[in-house]
Structure formats: structure tokens, C-alpha cells
Amino acid sequence: MQFIDRVEIQVKAGNGGDGIVAFRREKYVPAGGPSGGNGGNGGSIVLEATTDLQTLLDFRFEHIFKAEDGKRGGPNNMTGAQGKDRIIKVPCGTVAINAETEEIVGDLLEPQQQLLVAKGGKGGLGNKYFLSNRNRAPEYALPGLPGEEFHLRLELKLIAEVGIIGLPNAGKSTLISVLSSARPKVADYPFTTLVPNLGVVSKPSGDGVVFADIPGLIEGAHTGIGLGHEFLRHVERTRILIHMVDMTAEEPLASYETIQSELTAYGHGLPDKPQILVLNKADAITEAEAEAIAAQFITHIQIQPLIISAAAKKGLDRLLQAVWQSLDSQPEDIRSQEKVAY
Fold first, then answer.
1. Is 311's pLDDT higher than 70?
2. Other Cβ atoms closer than 10 A to 267
């Protein structure tokens, strides 16, 4: 499946129907007066979040969306039919942005949550509306108003509570595969992971927590180098980060500092997120070498790392315990903080 997380679409709400000019013509109704009905309102464009979609791939094939126009008013004071709304299904986690002004229109986080992105035009008034003591036979009506039209950019930000970050080949995909039932592609070459992978890990209470394996970041990722720039946005929704460092790398401490620099350069609150530092691949080096590397981190950044081996499934209980403690220490879910009423 191709992973598409950013698309641009054109939305056009329906135009309002025209009001009409009409008069009552019944045989035994003297001075029947005006009876032109109002036009119906045009349909609106509405985004609706659904769990049935995981990407924005469908929008690569259809990117122009129009709602139905309202109908003209009728005689005998009949109002025209309203145009049907156009409901557009999008994955949970989709952000709608006005592509021309860069203004965020709304954010869809929960299933069945709806967002009005283009309002239908109001129907025009029929001549019955203009009846007055001065004008007993108005011979004019108003046309319907045009519906709103916008150029939108849709961006998908995965909703995961725990994000796993690190340089390519740090072991992120291996970790998520052993912690959950997810089966991402795992190989010993850079950029094996080309799309974010999600996995659900069960807490001791039985609740499921979504982990996201973010594609490897490299130096300059925030400027568009490598794969990281396209996927840094997926880290924004996470509550905590697991920063994995490959202890078999030439300079593990420099690897850590590279990722931290990218998070700082990207901004959007990423540097402020709680992090759990994990030194991976303990099975590939001696215990003394692993302790020496951990001592470097303690000395230079004053952080006590966890030493694990994702491949050998060692140290994972301590890691999960640290994750649960970090999540429980945060009083409010980041998703509830991001909800906005529209």
C-alpha cells in the first residue's frame, strides 16, 4: 500500500437556487398577490473522519469535489429543494489547511468527527418576500448566492501516543515488531522504513497504546533531506518519544545529538516532548562496552539511558515500565489538548 500523507484538493459548495416571480392565478381568488417561492440553499462540503482509511491515497485520483446546487423556488410559495451536502471521508488525524492563506481550517481526530470546509450558498428570495403596503405586486426576485470555494491542503498526522525516533538502522522497526503484532519490513540497510508503522502495545491494565515507528531521520531532515522532513509532522501528536541509538555506530553520542538538533530545528513543540533514551543492540557488543557508552551519555548530557537489545528481546520490560510511568505522569492526553470546536 502506498502511503500518502499530503494532498491538495479543490472544494466547491453548491450555489443557492434562484427565487422566482410568480402570482396566484386561481379563478375565485381576487387579488391573489405574489407567490414566488425562495430558492433552496446549496449543499455544503463536509470532511468526516473515519477509521476505514489510513492514507490520503484516494485523493490522488479525485481532487475536485462539488456539492449539489439548490433548486429554484416554485409557484404557490414553494421553496426550492436544498442541495445535498458532499461528505468527504478522510483518515483520523487529518488536518485541513487553506492552501492560499496557510490558515488551519480544522483538525479531525476522532472517528465520525465532522468539519465544515465550504458552506453552501443561500437561496434567493422569491417575489412573495417583497410584498408590502407600497408594493402589492412586486415583479422581482433575488438570485441565489454562490457557494464557497477553496483550495485546501490535507495533511495526515498519525495519531500515536509513543513515537520511536532515531537514525536509520537504529532498530526502531525491530522494536515495534517485538513489542506489538506489527510486522514492518526489517533489513540491515538505511531507509528500510519508508512509511511510518503503527503497532498497538498492551498495558498491564489491558488498555492498548499506539506506538509509531517513524522513518529514520538524518542530518538536515528538517530542510527536506532524506525521508525525515516528510514524516517529522507525525511526531507532533505523540505524547512521549523513545529515542533509539545504535550502540554499534561509530559515534553513538553524535548520533543522539544529530536527532536532537533536527527536532530543535523543526520546532512545533518536538524538543519539549518527554523522551526516553534507549541504547540498542546490546547483543552485538560486550557488557563492558555497553556500560562505557552509557557512561558517555551520563557524563555529557546527564541522562541515564536504558540498555536493550530489541533483536534479542532483552531489557524490554524495563523500557515498557518507563513508558507506562511517563504516560501516567502526564495528566492530560495531547489529543484532547488539540481539539478545537468549529
1. yes
2. 12
Task: Write the DSSP string, 171-234.
Answer: SHHHHHHHHSS------SSTT---S-EEEEEE-TTS-EEEEEEPPPP-TTGGGT-TTHHHHGGG
**Cell numbers representing residue 66 in the block:** 462539488
106 near 342, Cβ under 8 Å? yes
Q: What gap in Å lies between CA 106 and CA 152, rounded to an integer?
A: 11
Task: Calculate the CA 185 to chain-centre distance.
Answer: 24
- Give the CA distances from residue 288 to residues 58, 265, 307, 308, 314, in Å, rounded to whole numbers and listed in that order: 52, 35, 12, 14, 16
Tens of pLDDT, residue by residue over 38-76, are: 999 999 999 999 988 877 888 888 899 999 999 999 998
Has residue 3 got a pLDDT over 70? no
Beta bridge partners of 213: 164, 197
The Cα–Cα gap between 244 and 164 comes to 7
- In terms of C-beta density within 10 A (0-12 exposed, 13-18 middle, 19 or more buried), how is residue 166 classed? buried
Domains belonging to the chain, first-starting first, are 6-156 (2.70.210.12), 162-334 (3.40.50.300)
Q: Which three cell numbers stand for residue 190?
A: 538505511
Q: Collapsing DSSP states into helix, strand and coil, what is residue 127?
A: helix
Pairing mode, strands 306-307 and 64-66: unpaired
pLDDT tens digits, 83-102: 999 999 998 889 999 999 99
